[in-house]
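Each field is listed here:
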Amino acid sequence: ISSYVLPEDNSIGMVMSGLVGDISYVQGAGEAGWYANDAWYGELSELDVTSGYWVRMEGDGELPIDHVATLSGSGFPYNVSREYDLHTGANLVSFPSEGSFDISTALPDNIEANIKAIIGEGTIAVHDGGGWFGSLSKFEGLHGYWIFSDEDISFSFNLGPANNGSGAREAAPTQMAKPEGLEFAQSSKQAFYFVMDESVLQEEMVENGDWFVSFCGSVMTGSRKYQGEATDIPVMGYDGHHSTTGYCESGDTPQFKLFKSTTGEMID
């Protein structure tokens, strides 16, 4: 998640106060805070309006983003031109606007070639030099993103009013209803594999409506509906939480299968 504005008191206790009883921890890029015994602990004490965060919920609850986004006074202003400083490698960042924007439109032309991949919650977009492919097609307000850069750069998103939603493509495949048995728990450790083998994608083997499914041993770790060439398959990893027990760890090799929606058959 991310916020495009934060109150003047941006302490983790203030921003997350509406989730007491449901929240267990908030994880940023290299720092985390956890809630226990009616108090917050850890090195993450304040939230940054330019950063994205993983939020672990243990019960039913809804993050009070609307409340945070409408605060007024001496807090951070709503600033779609906010500057982001990326270092070489992975950066967990916020998105500074409400609405949705096509990735290629939102990234300035002079830095787009430096961005090699963008990862969201169970989705990915990869830049191959000529364009973007993968299940992630647009940036959206209140979401956080891992942006992978090949050098240190500073930029502001290209978010003029005329661009808001103008180039947005269809909703990502992850928003589609999954067949029973293909659901998986979101992990903060995730990888993505692309099916590029023409022999796998030939018409008689895979058809519209089929699903690619990943496993680590006997545990299903991800699924993605077939969307044509360069379909990405998520593989969730074990991140220390009980909901991800059995998911892939360093050194494991995931296995992939094809779920035929017409017959319910799972093919190696």
In short: The radius of gyration is 19 Å. Helices lie at 12-15, 65-69, 103-106, 109-112, 198-201. Residues 65-69 form the longest helix (5 residues). Confidence is low (pLDDT under 50) at residues 63-74, 162-174.
